């Protein structure tokens, strides 16, 4: 059995329009959506060329074909729809961003969720407007198919440990919904940066740097004491790989021992908070020449408890379940493919356990 923690669905613009609040519905109907693309090629939203049926149906656009091409192809018990709305985080207008998030959520609930009982979804929220984000969490948290809070957060302007985001963290904690952090804004003109050091020359550079953004996010969340302030908060770092976590935590613990007076909220080592509050997803999995090296990295971060499977379907860098090496062992694979996500997302336990 498999729980896929990252599947991207699209809703046709014409359908999204009817869910947009005014005055944005009239604006988009007349002028189209606000354009945020920069001058670098944008492969991140690119659909796999083989994720298309002979009759023209496309994975991520047509629910029926997505079910056939992905959910039914593998033993997927639940698939988490995480939207395809990364550009929202690059929008300077907080009200427009909030309206797009609401429309995205409602369209997903109406257009995708009814098509298969295996679908679950994140609540898309705007980082530009934490109070509106908290209200959106409160509005949808009771829906049985909503299992996480979706944040498109790569090149944001304020570090995630800042109290500016507390309304989001309070709402997520109140409803026991983990944050589902996903890359965004790596190719939009409104982004503050497409590399931690500035603007990337092309998409290849920005995509390779995704783990660097997550390292920065984690440093801020841990050292600012967010998990002391919100002891129930859970965070998923999606689409950033796994190899970077171990060395970063070693460094965070070492630096904290020398300068703990600069992190006065912490009562434990940073690695202890990470173990309790942070989970990674596999995609895009690192692929070293020697598979034993990947197994060692998984062991270093206790992957049997800290890692969950994600495919990123239907994007070009999609990782099928077969990408995970069998050398990880049956128990670890079962936990990565299913058990860890089942617990983290508060999903019902299966009647019979197993791993494909």
Features:
38% helix, 14 helices, alpha/beta, 8 strands, eight-stranded parallel β-sheet, globular, single chain, 356 residues
Describe the overall structure.
- The chain has 14 helices and eight strands.
- With 356 residues, it is of the alpha/beta class.
- An eight-stranded parallel β-sheet has the order 1-2-3-4-5-6-7-8.
- The chain is globular, with a radius of gyration of 19 Å.
Instruction: Kindly estimate the percentage of residues that lie in beta strands according to DSSP.
Output: 5-15%
> What can be said about the biggest beta sheet?
8 strands, parallel
Task: Return residue spans where pLDDT drops below 50 for at least 5 consecutive residues.
Answer: none
Secondary-structure-derived class: alpha/beta
> How would you sum up the global shape?
globular
Order of neighbouring strands in the sheet with most strands: 1-2-3-4-5-6-7-8
Total helices: the number is: 14
Counting copies of identical and different chains, the oligomeric state is single chain
Radius of gyration: 19 Å
**How many beta strands in the DSSP annotation?**
8
Average pLDDT score: 91
Distance between the termini: 6 Å
What sequence of helices (H) and strands (E) makes up the elements?
Answer: EHHHEHEHEHEHHHEHHEHHEH
Helix content: 25-40%
Compact overview of the structure:
This protein has 356 residues and is an alpha/beta fold.
